[in-house]
Amino acid sequence: MYKLLRGSVVPRPIAWVSSKSKDGILNLAPFSFFTVASRNPPTLLISIGPGDNERKGSIKDTLTNIREVKEYIINMVPEQLGEAMYRSSASVEPEKNEFELAGVTAQNGRLLNAPAVLEAPISIELRLDQIIPVGGDHLVLGKVECVQIDEAIYTGNYKIAIDKWKPLANLAGDFARLMPSFSYEQVSMIEPINTT
């Protein structure tokens, strides 16, 4: 069922979650069960499952860190950071710094005591609201405290130029580019819909 669901519910955005343990160890890991949970208060949701591969059945470091420290950052993944994001998905011991593994730079959050990915075009700082167990997974709801956006992709009036940062999407273990984008207004102007 898991394979059917992840192959059907696509494309999915990737939350590149950066966190810090209570001992100050940095963690970075991608999650594709991710969406907006609420507009007001602004709240994001990620679903974190149990560990896999070598650490099968264990609790992921990201969940432990969020549970204990209550602060974390979701970094958005553009095409050019795809390989780095993928490297950070490796199952490694808790003391391993995935920023180093991915080859990206950790920078302090603007408001919270959590690390952000300097190279990411968008970093969203979150404070834990609640963790809801669902089966073997955990829904993590975080309230948005601050959004850092690269000036090169910001168009003003709280809008972001999607075509300038080129988000990467998850497709059942593979990845997809989402550009060029289009609207149905553009499509209908080009070619009328035949209803006969």
UniProtKB/TrEMBL annotation:
A GO molecular-function descriptor: FMN binding
Record bears the keyword Manganese: no
Needed co-factor(s): FMN
Keyword Flavoprotein: yes
Keyword annotations from UniProtKB, A to Z: Flavoprotein, FMN
Domain Flavin reductase like: 7-160
Pfam families the UniProt entry points to: Flavin_Reduct
Family that this chain belongs to: Belongs to the flavoredoxin family.
Annotated protein name in UniProt: Flavin reductase family protein
The species this protein was found in: Paenibacillus lutimineralis
Lineage: Bacteria, Bacillati, Bacillota, Bacilli, Bacillales
